[in-house]
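User: For this week's homework, look closely at the record that follows, marking any run of repeated tokens, and judge whether sequence predicts the tokens.
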Amino acid sequence: NPEAWQGLAHFCEHMLFLGTASYPDEGDFESYIASNGGSNNAYTDSEETVYFFDVGAGALPGALARFSDFFAAPLFTESATAREVAAIESEHSKNIQSDGWRTEQLLRATRGVSGHPYNGFFTGNRATLRDGGGGARAALLDFYGEYYRADQMDLSLLGPQSLDELQRLATEQFSRLPSRPGPPASAKYDPLGLPLSPDQGGGLGSGAVASPFATLVVPVREQRAVSATWCLPVADFDTWLACKPQVALSQLLTARADGSLLSLLKREGLGTAIEVGVEEQTRSFAVVTASLALTEAGLAAWPTAMGHLFSYLRLCREKGVPSHVFDDAKALAQLGFRYAEPSQPQAFVTATAASMPLYRPAAWLSGPSLLEGAGGPPTVRQLLGGMTPRAAMVEVCAKEVAPKAPLSERIYGTRYGRQPIEGEVAAWEAAPLLPELSLPRPNPFIPKRLAIKAPQTLPRKEGVPSPTPSLLPAADGARVHFLPDRTFGRPRAFAYFLWRSPEFYTSARTAVTAELFAGMLAEVLQEATYEAAQAGLVAASGVSSDAFTVQLGGYDERLPALATLVASTVRSFEPTQGAFERKVDILRRQLRDAERRQPISLAGYRRGLALQPARFSNEQLAAAAGEVSLSDVAAMQEGVLREAQLEAFVAGNLRENEAAEMVRGVRAALPAAPLAAERLPVRRLRRLPP
């Protein structure tokens, strides 16, 4: 974006939909797509704008004729320019209450290096775009002329037409795109150096330098978190793309097994979750963030929680990342790509168009998924070398920091403050390695046997009924449905277990107890099944008003062992006071946040209260949350599913005897007596008067 026109790239994206030389009617493209059963949209990110649509196959030529004219001959009419600023302002108004948009802009405002375009206001609003006047149309034409040229564009088409026909359509419609010489857009900022720095004054004046400080942020929604963000140079962009060091980094920091950072934070009652990701990546720099979700005690002791993070990073630097971390990541990426489910057409072309500039043609499809080359270990070492306490931009986000947040960010109005942390940084740098932390072991759940067990049939013809599950013999009133995969040819299987019981929703207090029990179980399962989850297996459990459920899926070789592990954990895990307090805290915050949800969610909630006689209100649940104790959860665990009706569905790459054996293993691990018919829960709806 030009400094004088913040949000111009986003504005240009909007304007291209509003009339072209061959199709001057502003609504022509939208009308054509909608009348042919399609949809369309676009988005502007930090370094690219992506336009996409889907449409009935026969309408593709007409859609491409209109679509290509976006880029060959947009009109940018004065009237549309003035009107469309209102749509930009509407988007901005919607984003104002989003913590994601707010904290992203605040990072740029408080840590941004003056003069770098990364620190601008990307989406724009009525003020930055001058209400569509003041030279807005001329600015749009200049921007379009500089950046919308063929050598900066990529096109991805998908359709039932032959490749020759698709190529003909592409050549016919897009060969007339502007072809003007010029440098790549990134040439304007690649030489500028890093855009963010931990020692920027952040509003103290151009070039001002501050001693280390933490930014204290007041969020819109209920949350407690502390994060560290690093802006790091990218020495070799192509190597980064090939080896994807963020995958190994995330596996290290977000591990949930014993010896992991998260396991220690939970054991000490400081944190509940960790997220690690690359927030931004260009050819010259990457913005990496590690965020810790905190308990109430963790917020009070957030420097300790951050100290644990830095201790783990130091462990990785000094001990070195084991080679099996990279080997496992490569193997799992290969499996994921080999057995990936087909994408939706629109999602497929959108993703490939965005990735085509980054990879050679032979890797356009595989490049974003696979981990290739030997660059992983040295690139991760380089990342870890830069992720030090003094290089970190620390942010504490919680409503509780409001008394220390006298400042306001100018675009979103985010309240924030600064807290000096020179002492904390020095302590983090000098802290010893913690004996409770260890590096991960090789993953024993990565599948080795991938044979397809059922003979595959040809794709189902129109009019031929779909295969239906068979009912397997089972004792004690249980119902077990089985459907072998004869269509997809993937070494995966899925299992769904449902125990019907009337014990979970007899009162608001019981409903809250059941919710807390399910949350504590899910937390235990996160650690117990972490390695399985990394190896492509998923396990989830939950409670509803009338049932307890377990869902399992993934590569079939180890699925039965995972099913037994999950079932045996239901009654064997130990509910702890720390876990109970974490889950109560999360539930209370969710209930307090309930009235801040989108109107459609609130409407659904009110409808449920009106139509479901047994439904409890958020106020009733919040009151019950203040009464429930750990002993209530322990009592529910002791008595859970002593009587229940089991129904199971097993499908995928399994033989009938394997499916039956899996169910027997689950029933042995979690036995339940048959539930009398008169005690079966019945869902009822209230008939409202006319």
Observations:
- Residues 202-209 have pLDDT under 50 and may be disordered.
